[in-house]
Specification:
By secondary structure, the chain is α/β, with parallel strands linked by helices. The chain contains 22 helices and 8 strands. Strand 1 and strand 2 form a beta hairpin. Helix 12 packs across helix 13, helix 17 runs antiparallel to helix 19 and helix 21 crosses helix 22. Bound molecules: adenosine-5'-diphosphate (ADP) and magnesium ion.
């Protein structure tokens, strides 16, 4: 069966090429190179561990018929993981005009830079991960998956990476797209029969930033195309950054896509705490050249908690008003200008006790049972649900929240939260029960 005029690797490639798609071949097998071969041992260079695992998992049988085995009847192949390089695919012309054009085409918001991003406990981790990616694309976290609620700075951070790459890695080819734009691009190119050109374009990028991947849900054909492109890039150690309103496991996407997105770092961006919101208000108003006192900043920050975009809307309105009226911003002005907005967004404050009460009523157990340490199934489940809701609905450190459950630790809380997050994916009934408790709390 084995052709002796070619080495085992080439023979293996020739053999499997017949049975897989061209895309799969290019994404997974082409990036592997044969470094060394003796009669009884082969060294293969792979771009990363995923490619190695893919090869071993999918072609074990074929590999053992082409490659020599060692004394322990194991494949005599050594893998070498390639050092990541960020060599540009195609050098871009470095001219001032070229740079301006590039930035224009990228459509990055000029204000969405790291300098204008205010750090706090809810976003410190994801910001430093993003900074790491901007500093050395393809070498730290790949892909970087940023998820979190609306208006919490996902797009801001993604553009900040874009700005940094443009500034520090001028030769890298970068693209920043929304998922909708990606789909539209594909549709248009399908119509014009130029889809291969488009695919080639994406596959030659060094850095790809994709905003709002949740829009890929229920778009099966596009999802497959996206996944192929994703693999092609990742397998050459090209940097990918994705944002989403949910973590990968909560998205209605194929298992293949979900797994790929979990390969690198999945980081959550949370609701900023009071102090961070105050700092954001002060920073944004300074940018607009208008002065907001600390007292007023606190007044607004205490009332708009869930969404930085709303905070920004409030500042814009206030500053415009102050400008037109030639009047400094006073508390009265805030109250009258933001009346509607503040009414809209100020929900009833939820307390830990209210959450515990709500769960106890719905699941018919007592408070002392929830705070105790019984492992009885129903009680343990209700406790986990209360912990989940507390983490979702309250501010404050995990340790602080956990201490209300009879002095449990933050890791117990986190464990409970993760468990319920997973269970509500599969258990529609549980999901509805939790939503009911939540609705009763905030109405
Ligand atoms: P998302 O993509 O998560 O919906 P955006 O990135 O569009 O949110 O952010 C909404 C607005 O809030 C933007 O104007 C952004 O600059 C601002 N913003 C969010 N978080 C921060 C932060 N930590 N520091 C400064 N501005 C922020
Ligand atoms: Mg966004």
């Amino acid at each position: 069966m084995q052709d002796t005029s070619v080495n085992a690797w080439d023979a293996f490639l020739q053999f499997v090429q017949k049975s897989i798609t061209q895309t799969e071949f290019e994404n997974w097998l082409s990036p592997i190179t044969l470094i060394e071969n003796t009669e009884d041992r082969y060294v293969l260079k792979v771009p990363n561990i995923f490619v190695q695992e893919y090869l071993l998992e999918n072609y074990k049988k074929e590999l053992s018929s082409f490659f020599p085995l060692d004394e322990k009847k194991q494949l005599a192949i050594d893998f070498m993981i390639q050092e990541p390089t960020t060599k540009p695919t195609k050098p871009a012309p470095i001219s001032i005009l070229g740079e301006a054009k590039k930035e224009q085409k990228l459509r990055l918001n000029p204000l969405y830079t790291f300098d204008h991003f205010i750090e706090g406990p809810s976003n410190q981790f994801v910001k430093s991960a993003a900074y790491g990616v901007g500093t050395s694309p393809g070498k730290s976290f790949n892909p970087l998956f940023i998820h979190g609620g609306v208006g919490l700075g996902k797009t801001h951070l993604m553009h900040a990476i874009g700005h940094m790459v443009l500034e520090k890695h001028k030769k890298l080819k970068i693209e920043c797209i929304t998922t909708e734009a990606f789909i539209n691009d594909l549709v248009n190119n399908l119509k014009n029969k130029s889809v291969d050109k488009l695919k080639r374009h994406y596959r030659t990028l060094d850095v790809l930033l994709v905003d709002d991947i949740q829009f890929l849900q229920n778009r099966i054909n596009f999802e497959e195309e996206f996944c192929n492109m994703f693999e092609a890039l990742i397998n050459q150690n090209k940097q990918i950054v994705i944002t989403s309103d949910k973590p990968p496991s909560h998205l209605k996407l194929s298992e293949r896509m979900t797994q790929r997105m979990e390969w690198g770092l999945v980081a959550n961006i949370g609701v900023p705490d009071l102090e961070t919101r105050v700092a954001i208000i002060q920073h944004k108003s300074e940018l607009k050249g208008c002065n907001i006192s600390e007292q007023i900043a606190f007044y607004i920050a205490e009332r708009i908690h869930q969404n930085v975009r709303q905070i920004e809307g409030a500042i814009n309105r206030l500053c415009a008003f102050a400008h037109i009226m030639h009047h400094p911003i006073t508390l009265d002005m805030v109250v009258s200008t933001l009346k509607e907005l503040l009414q809209q967004v100020t929900p009833r404050l939820v307390s830990i006790d209210a959450i515990i009460d709500g769960v106890c009523k719905t699941f018919e157990i007592s408070k002392s049972q929830i705070k105790g340490s019984s492992r009885q199934k129903e009680i343990a489940k209700a406790r986990q649900i209360a912990m989940y809701l507390a983490k979702e609905m309250l501010e404050g450190s995990l340790n602080q929240i956990a201490s209300h459950f009879g002095g449990k630790t933050h890791s117990t809380l986190l464990h409970a939260w993760k468990k319920i997050c997973q269970e509500i994916q599969k258990d529609e009934m549980l999901k509805r029960q939790i939503e009911m408790v939540q609705k009763n709390l905030s109405s």
